[in-house]
User: What shape does this take?
Amino acid sequence: MMQHIIGVARNQMVFTSLEQNIPDDNPVRFLDAFVENIDLGALGFELQTLKTEGRPSYSTKIFLKIYLYGYLNGLRSSRKLEKECTRNMELQWLLYGLIPNYHSISDFRKDNPSGLKKTLQSICFIFKRC
Assistant: This one.
């Protein structure tokens, strides 16, 4: 009888971290540093303000990270981006495990056309991809 390589049982608990699964040279790390260190207001983004009532909103930087990740990886649909937030390890690392819904992602794109255009021009220059 032939032996096969077997994986870990699906019901077995395995301890890992998102940090160890994202290599140091992964472009998503650059994307994170880029967004964390730019002045969103100067680029023309509508900044999310802290609410006194209701559910708190996501940071503008979270949405920009999602949008730029999608742009660089050919994911344009807000619904596809939402789905990728749940199953893509790079996006889970980038967003600290947050999963905004597709409507919020779409609203961010609709509400920030000038900021996105300026940011994409910067990203295109850096990555030499457009």
User: Anything to note?
Assistant: The chain has a mean pLDDT of 90.
